[in-house]
Design a protein that fits this description.
Residues 1-53 are annotated as: Disordered. Residues 1-15 have a biased composition (Basic residues). Residues 24-42 have a biased composition (Acidic residues). This protein has a domain at 26-119. Helix content is 67%, strand content 0%. It is built from two helices and no strands. The protein has helices spanning 15-18, 26-115. The chain is rod-shaped.
Length: 141
């Protein structure tokens, strides 16, 4: 089995290909090329224009969406800052109250044990000379 080789396809000569006698001068030919280039550029710009408009529209909408999101996050941030300040103030007040009550209890226990040994707690002898008060600030610091 031998394969037959196909002949390569060649262009047939037509009247257009055979007649290449133009009457244009070089200047006219350059002008016509420039006009064609300008027309092609205009056509390309016209094709690009809707795409450019769509891109710009999408870009503007994305930017406005991000700006809205930014303003929302800034408002949330301000709310959190206010909440933080409130919580810090409350923590400071609670700390001051705790210190006050600890001092109050220390003074009350010291007063009770000094003036009346009956109110002293078991295991807290007065003879040791140290502060045996379980409510003293030394344990909490």
């Amino acid at each position: 089995m031998s394969r037959k080789r196909k002949k390569p396809v060649t262009k047939k000569k037509t009247q257009k290909n055979s007649e290449q006698n133009f009457d244009f001068s070089d200047e006219e030919e350059e002008k016509s090329q420039e006009q064609q280039e300008q027309e092609e550029e205009i056509n390309q710009n016209l094709k690009k224009k809707p795409k450019q408009i769509n891109y710009r529209t999408k870009l503007k909408s994305r930017v406005s969406e991000l700006e809205k999101q930014l303003s929302k996050l800034e408002q949330e941030n301000e709310q959190f800052k206010v909440k933080e300040a409130i919580l810090q103030t409350k923590a400071k007040i609670y700390k001051e109250q705790l210190d006050y009550f600890q001092n109050f209890m220390n003074n009350a226990m010291n007063f009770a044990t000094r003036n009346n040994p009956i109110f002293s707690l078991p295991g807290m002898g007065l003879s040791s000379g140290g502060n045996n008060n379980p409510f003293s600030n030394e344990k909490f610091n």
